[in-house]
Automatic annotation (TrEMBL):
Belongs to the TTC38 family. Gene3D superfamilies: Tetratricopeptide repeat domain. This is Tetratricopeptide repeat protein 38. The gene is ttc38. Keywords: Repeat, TPR repeat. Coiled coil: none annotated.
């Protein structure tokens, strides 16, 4: 095959025609998708950003080039079309190009899904990507964007089943086939099928040891089963395989640090924060890295650890995002930092911004949740920070089954379960204290042999007996 048409033809052969006459644009689109799936910037090609610039030069009107570049910025959740006119313009430009060109129905659906995501309509965006997968089950772009969208909604079953549905259509010769194991494993673990999740992730890593998402999935399995020593051994043994996946390395380091918090080895957790997590957070500006830094400090403070000036340093990173309100999950983490940094005006502004958006949420899924989940959660965190533990618990307890909709994983949302337990233990009301002990019994059953749970149980006995 002529080199000039190789990438164009390869996509056609997969039944995934790309509407461009530029083979170079196809090659770069392929490179961007591959880096997205691998969570790794290929520096030999200039990373994702370099590939996007080169793609736009190769074919400035390539619709799917615009879709993937704008879509990636949107799913990064570090910016919003509500405040960022450049990003809003990029969405409009992509839609205009799609309407003006004779492109395939699949490509039009991609653009529609991206536009819906930009409006915060995560459910309909996911539906549009699923419509693509119905007729084009090997479209990894649709599968990966749907996967991430479900994650932001806390839609655990759809996230798992989206991968299961397409698996029979994938064959070993399909590009990126080997990375399906990590995606499936993550869906399995988020639906509590831990044994299956572990098996699938291990099968994937046997084929592709540097699949950072499969590593990440195993980290979750060990976290949810409280297999702390097994997790620590796994990270130490495989570090060289996943640290090069720069877009996910910091998050895997965060999981590594959680093991030390479980064991009560706080200095070791702080060492990972200082040497890896905060360093990545400052350099990348990636939202996943930022919220991990927020979460780790908050968990340590709940454990009674003094984190010194780290809140102030992190506040410089989070403060510019205080008005974003892309996801409630992000908002709660920004609030942790403004509270830790003792910047009450920013904390108040964040809460008031959510209150305003909840009044007219439009089609924005997260803003719909703001009134019922977002605002009371923020209020609870602020009450807890002020030492009003009774009020904090009474705001938190009704949210315990509603919080799934803020997105994230079970392991990430566990922070809010821990906060609820701490508020109950510090409450002066006997009923709240009893409910706190009930929560600990539930936790001990679901996650047996957790050192952190056992530590909290002993603390509750000391406080209330």
């Amino acid at each position: 095959m002529c080199l000039l048409t190789m990438f164009l033809q390869a996509w056609r052969d997969e039944g995934l025609t790309l509407s461009t006459s530029s083979n170079e644009a196809c090659k770069l689109y392929d490179a961007i998708l591959t880096q997205y799936v691998k969570w790794k910037n290929d520096e030999t090609m200039g990373g994702i950003e370099g590939c996007i610039s080169a793609l736009q030069a190769a074919d400035p009107n390539f619709v799917m080039g615009h879709m993937i570049s704008t879509g990636l910025e949107l799913v990064g959740t570090a910016s919003t079309t509500r405040l960022n006119e450049r990003l809003a313009g990029a969405v409009r430009r992509t839609v205009e190009l799609a309407n003006a060109q004779d492109i395939t129905h699949r490509e039009k659906l991609h653009v529609r899904a991206m536009e819906l995501f930009s409006q915060g309509d995560f459910p309909k965006a996911a539906d549009a990507w699923e419509d693509i997968l119905l007729d084009h089950p090997t479209d990894m772009t649709a599968l990966k964007f749907a996967h991430d969208t479900y994650f932001y909604m806390g839609a655990q079953l759809p996230m798992r089943d989206s991968v299961i549905r397409v698996l029979p259509h994938w064959k070993p010769h399909n590009p990126l086939y080997r990375y399906l194991n990590g995606m499936l494993s993550f869906g399995l673990l988020e639906t509590r099928l831990y044994d299956q999740a572990e098996k699938v992730a291990m099968e994937g890593l046997a084929l592709t040891p540097d699949d950072a998402w499969a590593v990440h999935s195993l980290a979750h399995v060990y976290e949810m089963r409280a297999e702390v020593d097994k997790s620590l051994s796994f990270f130490e043994r495989t570090e060289k395989d996943w640290q090069s996946a720069d877009m996910l390395a910091s998050h895997n380091n965060w999981h590594w640090a959680l093991n030390f918090i479980e064991k009560g080895q706080y200095e070791a957790a702080l060492e990972i924060f200082d040497s890896k997590i905060f360093r990545f957070c400052k350099s990348s500006g990636a939202m996943l890295d930022i919220v991990d830094a927020c979460s780790l400090l908050y968990r340590l403070e709940m454990e009674g650890v003094c984190v010194k000036d780290r809140w102030q340093e992190l506040f410089r990173v989070t403060r510019p995002h205080s008005d974003d309100h892309v996801t409630l999950f992000n908002d709660f983490h920004f609030l942790m930092v403004s509270l830790g940094a003792k910047d009450s005006s920013t904390s108040r502004r964040l809460l008031e911004g959510l209150q305003e958006l909840s009044k007219e949420p439009g089609n924005n899924q997260q803003h719909h949740l703001a009134g019922t989940v977002g605002v009371p959660m923020c209020q609870a965190m602020m009450e807890y920070d002020q030492g009003n533990h009774d009020r904090a618990f009474e705001l938190l307890y009704p949210l315990r089954y509603k919080i799934l909709g803020i997105g994230g994983s079970d392991a990430q949302r566990d922070l809010f379960s821990q906060l609820m337990v701490h508020a109950a233990m510090k409450s002066e009301k006997k009923r709240n204290q009893k409910l706190g002990r009930c929560l600990l019994m539930e936790r001990d059953t679901v996650r047996p042999n957790s050192p952190l749970t056992q530590r909290l149980m002993r603390k509750a006995l000391v406080l209330h007996d």
